[in-house]
Amino acid sequence: MSVAPNALKLPGIQEHPKTTEPRRMTIAERLYLPLLSGLGVTIRHMFANLFGLRKRVTIQYPEERREYSHRYRGHHILTSRPDGSVRCVACFLCATACPAECIHIEAAEHPDVNIEKYPVVYEIDMLRCVFCGYCVDACPEDAIIMSNNYDMAYYSREQSIVGKSDLMKPFTVDPGRLGYRPYYPEEDEKRSQTSSQGFDLVGAARAKSAPATVAH
Amino acid sequence: MIAEAPPLLDRLPAGAVVAQEGPDAPTDQPTWIVRRDSLVDVLRELKENPRQRFDLLLDLCGVDYPDREERFEAVYHLYSIPRGERLRLKVRLTEADPVLPSAIPVHKGADWFEREAYDLFGFQFTGHPNLRRILTHDGFQGHALRKDYDSARRWILTEENIYQPKLVAPRSLENGDSMFERMTVNIGPSHPAMHGTFRLIAMLDGETIVASEVEIGYLHRCFEKMAETHTWQQVIPYTDRLNYCSSFINNVGYCRTVEQMLGIEAPPRAVWARTILSEFSRIMDHCVCNGATLVDLGALTNFWYLFQPREEIYSLLESVTGARLTVSGCRIGGLIAELPPDFIARCEHLLEFIPPLVDDVEKLIHKNRIFMDRSVGIAAIAGEEAVNWGWTGPCLRASGVAYDVRKAHPYDLYDKVEWEVPVLLGGDVYDRFKVRMLEIRQSLRIIRQLLDRGMPAGRTIIDDPHVALPPKDACYNQMESMIYHFKLIMDGIQVPPGERYGMVEGANGELGFYCISDGGGKPYRIKVRPPCFPIFSTFSTLVNGHTLSDAIATLGGLNVIAGELER
Q: Is the model's pTM score more than 0.80?
């Protein structure tokens, strides 16, 4: 096969390096001199932390917590109607949309003909769930939303399958702890006003827990 | 233009190479159908002919069509770094005789890819030196990605089936001239220095590794098999778990590929945000990689400095998508939600927050002789060799080859901003570290310019009810939107039949998604081209001859992520 002489002159054509050229140390580097500037960095950080010149980057979990946005995809909530019954109409869209197949629903006839169906059993396996929020996207009734509660720990696998009663617990519907749910732009506005430095989450966490620390 | 294959390959028998044409031919890149006995000749010719120069074997995968007479296809994705061209080769095989020649003599990087195709499809590669299972264990029977494989089947690995490598010391050491006794050590799969679930079996002569072998597959989760049973939209959360240090880039790569198959484009606002968040994810990934490498070398302080940007970037991602690690931030056709009102303020905050910490790490490390003694010249690989092994990404750029998908095939807004591809020539642990630090700076530069361009107006997801869910109030109040909503959730997005290889520059190299659709709501086949797979296949070659502690430094510098390596 003959090699076309102009082939190597095509634009952008270049050979890959066949050898390596490792970095060479200068005399100062051989004498470890640049280490001094490195020491300067660590000493600066140490004094800044020691005298509180700079905000500390660590937080004392679980006393202090990072404040997560109202989009956080945490523990699910089944919302209820004004009379306290479950809002879900057992249409199975959430179970269909779930990529992890962690939602189990058993439907039954609702006594009210306008509602038609309701879930007798609604279980989510929290160890299977990947918290993608697809169930919330899929729900045509606003019946399933998420909270920003990420504290989920169980002693057994059976415990991790949470049913209707757990999902409808009143504490999870605390408006301050709501997470991912169908998009509401007005809440974004509200939040950006309430925390002027919404991104300074460590500072916000510390400010909140400060009184408690003083009391001790 | 390269579709006119045959004249160049005139030495080959007639019909050895045919360009795939017709209505079912792929439209994204030229595709040739190669007869298997000519495969190695074709690959060699393509690589060595100066007019072709397809020097990088990106990917090798199998596809199963049970209804066809020639049931299997082995698909090779080639890339020419000098010419910036792509080419796909297909070899058709029958079920009775799935044998084809190994491509290792031409592309060393084919080694693990062939083992994977053997493992998951049962292809036999003649001439492969070590053709055994790689992702599934040795007690596994059958080939998992064949369409007739019963995915509910479980296999147990028993003690006697566990693979016992027989390491052979090189000839030069066989004379017994060493004063030390040989010792074989096993590190991992659960070892703090192995950064995930890798197993290194190394034969030591004193402290020097003379022979080694790596074993992977401990985190294999059948991503590709599961993708075949989920709708296109449902695959997105699975892509998060590929390279979990920069999951947003995976989302973008997958969603872009499916968008191209659908012939749609995400709105400008979504593209703008995708570019910014991808770059932040890249910064985060480089921070984790460099931080962890330094921890392995005993420089713990840097780890704390580099993890601060990461935590804050997670907060930005969380405010946009609702999750910190596995973000699922993209949807096909746009983003998961509208951007929060403080998005720009958060980005500005990060742009001020990150550079001082990167400066600090550079001051601590870049001229530090202690680090240099551990990293300069360690596990060095020249550019040509790295390309031969299929490397991409920062590791390749540290070896002097300036290939970056963002520059070579600009997507999103990368051609609208000014930035450079950092390239170094050392090819060793030190230069891999340094390239990543330089890339962090370039990413910050890209983000700065994008913020200065301003947020484009409009929606963050396409207004097409066949692709994106209608807004909630439309869904609650309009019959038509309600129907679209149900159809989309129940049947999924209907992607037209065809195949496409889509790529983005992941944090550790070219991340490719080779998607095949049969026109239904679910993917027919998705193959991920994981950038660290070919890189890690080089590991044992790289560390032989170095000390055991250098192997640990090397592993950190390669940025191998088990989630992506083993899918």
A: yes
CATH fold of A76-181, please? Alpha-Beta Plaits (3.30.70)
**Nearest of B496, B509, B525, B511 to residue B559 by alpha carbon:** B509
Instruction: Return the residue of A nearest to B302 by Cα.
Output: A42
- Residue pair B468/B485 in contact by the 8 Å Cβ criterion: no
DSSP for B446-461, please give it.
HHHHHHHH-PPPS-SB
pLDDT in tens, B211-231: 888 888 888 888 888 888 899
B386 CB neighbours in chain A (<8 A) are 16
CA distance linking residue A210 with residue B501, whole number of Å: 54
Q: Is the ipTM of this complex over 0.85?
A: no
Cβ count within 10 A of residue B51: 17
Q: Residues B276-307: pLDDT tens digits?
A: 999 999 999 999 999 988 888 888 888 888 88
Residue A129 · residue A100 · CB < 8 Å: yes
Q: Are B57 and B113 in contact (CB under 8 A)?
A: yes
What is the rounded distance in angstroms from the CA atom of residue A213 to the CA atom of residue A204? 15
| Residue B34, H or E segment | strand B31-34
Domain boundaries defined on chain A: 76-181, 184-216
Nearest by CB to residue A4, choosing from B51, B311, B328, is B51
* Dist. CA B18–CA B4, nearest whole Å: 9
Please, what are the domains in chain B? 6-126 (3.30.460.80), 223-538 (1.10.645.10)
- Cβ within 8 Å, pair A21-B426: yes
